């Protein structure tokens, strides 16, 4: 406790860090207030009686911090921006012109402008779909429907998404942590206290408080496991060639040893998001089928996140998407060329293509356990719900919620620790290290 208090004092004593933290908290407060401002023409009392989102709608509501179910001006959150960013990232891999632009500062700025313009188009499309959802699923919550409501709602939702995107960029520039990720994390964790209280109340009413304590212990174990999954790396030893610099006062430089950190889970949370979006299709088929020719038992099981077939297919999809997304973002050939240009090499491996093959083989081997652990984390919420945990609290037993939360918190702590170490303070922990802290070079 004494170490924690001393660390907090050190953080508060750094003026720049203090201003960044307060700035971030202020913008997050603005975002949370906006999540409860209902769209014009919506009756919030009627809307509160029909708030049940599952599948992809539940995922969007989670990313929006509950604003989706509240019909807020921030109902779409940053999902359109995320969709546009993913599209531009994939375009940078497939289209050579975009790949060339990403390597230059001016090109990256232009790509950011393209992403913002694409965000507007995606927001308009999603806003139209959201209006259709409000008309059919909210039991008459729209007070004054018509063309004016349609146009004004699209304008408000688009402006809300752009404003949230602006808040995220400002947090990244003048605050602490990645702004967009921070906004998503705050929206996710804002649901945790309510879900915890709801779970405690239900277990208290059924005299299962001991089971509730077991749930808390398992929840802590899941968080620890996700931290290990996020921080896990495989270090490849790396040497730098010695060379002579200068003529009269020649000096030998190089010869230092370092390592290449290859993350066990390079794909992050994207495989789970892709798999959830794909598994939502059977739920749509089951929902659109009529009672006479309703879906068969197999299709129904694929729309139930606690069924065996759903979790089995979902786990396979997560593993497949992990390999797919890792292959998109990780290029061993480019890494081998960069090592060759910097006069560095892996001991016992020839530079060039042999180095690329060696790095690729190691990446394939460490991706398999990472993909399996990620798949287990993805199906844990369904297993928890099957064991009697309420749906709200079960969503925090792994899945997208905790993966995003753990990743953003670790990234933010890393930035805070960097500010402390630059000013010769101790880090956040006396032992161990936050992911990203580099050890001393031998």
Automatic annotation (TrEMBL):
InterPro entries: SecY, SecY/SEC61-alpha, SecY_CS, SecY_dom_sf. It comes from the Bacteria. Pfam families: SecY (PF00344). It is found in: Cell membrane; Membrane. The keyword Cell membrane applies. It is a multi-pass membrane protein. Its main location: membrane. One of its GO terms (cellular component) is plasma membrane. The central subunit of the protein translocation channel SecYEG. Consists of two halves formed by TMs 1-5 and 6-10. These two domains form a lateral gate at the front which open onto the bilayer between TMs 2 and 7, and are clamped together by SecE at the back. The channel is closed by both a pore ring composed of hydrophobic SecY resides and a short helix (helix 2A) on the extracellular side of the membrane which forms a plug. The plug probably moves laterally to allow the channel to open. The ring and the pore may move independently. Belongs to the SecY/SEC61-alpha family. Component of the Sec protein translocase complex. Heterotrimer consisting of SecY, SecE and SecG subunits. The heterotrimers can form oligomers, although 1 heterotrimer is thought to be able to translocate proteins. Interacts with the ribosome. Interacts with SecDF, and other proteins may be involved. Interacts with SecA. This is Protein translocase subunit SecY. The lineage of its organism: Bacteria, Pseudomonadati, Bacteroidota, Chitinophagia, Chitinophagales.
